[in-house]
Amino acid sequence: MKLFFKDLKVYLYPLKGQESGEIITSENLKVHPRMKELYKFFKYNGKMLDIKDYDPEILDIFSRNVLQMISEGKDGWEEMIPEKVADIIKDHSLFGYSKRRFIKNA
Length: 106
Hints:
By secondary structure, the protein is α+β, with helices and mostly antiparallel strands. It folds into two domains: 10-57, no CATH class; 63-105, no CATH class. The protein is 33% helix and 9% strand. The chain has helices at 36-44, 63-72, 83-91, 99-105; strands at residues 10-12, 15-16, 23-24, 48-50. The strands form two sheets. It has a two-stranded parallel sheet with strand order 1-4. The chain has a two-stranded antiparallel sheet with strand order 2-3. A hairpin with a 6-residue loop joins strand 2 (15-16) and strand 3. The longest helix has 10 residues, at 63-72. The radius of gyration is 18 Å and the shape is elongated. The N and C termini lie far apart (55 Å).
């Protein structure tokens, strides 16, 4: 089966548990039972690598929260993502972004 190429790697950026504050990596990640065998395949065959050089300051940023802020017209989401990405979202009115909504909420 050629589903996964020989040089395929999956890189995991750590996650900070919202309730526990624990840093979650491939070593302590809880995987849904249906995904367990696939996870073990990647992990034990060296296909999954933890990113070690990460920025702990951004571990509290969750994409679902940023998307919700954008779609609801709330301020502050721009500081959570790279400036160029924010510019693209604004220029193309992505994810429900509306200039009028942000002007009205200002």
